[in-house]
Amino acid sequence: MKAVILAAGEGTRMRPLTAARPKVMLPLANRPMLEHVIEACIKVGIKDFVVVTGYKEETIRDYFGDGKRWGIHIDHVTQEKQLGTANAIGCAREYVNGRFVQLNGDMLVDPTHLEKLIQHNEPAVISVKAVENPSEFGVIVTEADKVVRIIEKPLDPPVKTVNAGIYLFDTTIFEYIDRTALSPRNEYEITDSMQMMVNDGIHVGFEPLTHVWLDVGRPWDMLDANKALLEKIKPKCEGTVEPMATLHGDVIIGEGTIVRNGAYIIGPVVIGKNCDIGPNCFIRPSTSIGNNVHIGNGVEVKNCVIMDYTKIGHLTYIGDSVVGYGCNFGAGTKVANLRHDGKSIKSIIKGKRVDTGRRKLGVIMGDDVHTGINTSINVGVVIENGSGTRPGEVLMQ
Description:
Elements: E1 2-7, E2 27-28, E3 31-32, H1 33-42, E4 48-53, H2 57-64, E5 73-78, H3 85-90, E6 100-104, E7 107-109, H4 111-117, E8 124-130, E9 138-143, E10 146-152, E11 161-169, H5 172-179, H6 190-199, E12 204-208, E13 213-215, H7 221-230, E14 236-237, E15 240-241, E16 246-248, E17 251-253, E18 258-259, E19 264-266, E20 269-271, E21 276-277, E22 282-283, E23 287-289, E24 294-295, E25 300-302, E26 305-306, E27 311-312, E28 317-319, E29 322-323, E30 328-329, E31 334-335, E32 346-349, E33 352-355, E34 364-365, E35 370-371, E36 376-377, E37 382-383, E38 394-395
InterPro entries: Bifunctiontional_GlmU_arc-type, GlmU-like, GMPPB_C, NTP_transferase_dom, Nucleotide-diphossugar_trans, Trimer_LpxA-like_sf
EC number: 2.3.1.157, 2.7.7.23
Enzyme class: transferase
């Protein structure tokens, strides 16, 4: 059994976070989300992987190499142009000679589901999930133990069962990939390939997904995924905690990190290597702090993803935010994270305002952003890489 993991896309909806790296290399609980996918597969005994790369693929290849660090083997194959899921899976055909699991590198999946999936014997099996908003997904119509129809994002969905983007295939799929035509989105869609299999009378099975499944498609989805992963951590301290610091719950502290007196940390929280935390700061649950991060005096951080080499100056507040690499918060920077009128927060994706559906969301900050002292940032603001603010500036969306 092999796993083919698609990791070729940029993740344009995740901009500016993906300006310097592919989406699958964004950190969740201080490790790339692709690593969490690989580890879920390892837990069910899969040791051979094909990772399909494309956008800024060197970051993936440099980090994972041939997989020896995890006791596995990884083949990397390039998708020259991002022409859809069928095209991406087709790139792996030379590395596959039997059944294989196919996953996307930007999702969280429970190993329990993979264990059930690989028990199937059909030529193709699709993972399905019941959701309240099926029109945003590919809808899967089933009958008895097989799939009878796949409908991409219908306006009036006949059922609430959707495609979870996790499959089991044998090599029959490649024949149908070769026959797949361009979709209206100008891509070769694996769901079109599978619909042809159904039309030809091939038994396409399905496996309901009842465990954790999170598709990280938008920047704020990282907060949900990060929280889900942190809920599973076990406390560990490889750094130094001064005697007047307080740690509650499950907290991981990396090698070379110092937590200074007066720091108050409520887990689950993970803090990376060589960080300087405090004194007198408050780190609240569901926060991951990368390597070489400085959090100063009087800082409060809550439910955030803070990436490597970021510095958060004293008297700063950040909540429900995703902060890129190498940012610097001037003293007294405040990030609003709750609309006071009770409505859901809007943010920007690909230049358009979208409803996040969230009542709490702070800032989405790219890499190397610097804020002047006493900067105020309103809810849902997106800040591009390399930007800066003046002292006392107010940022509105």
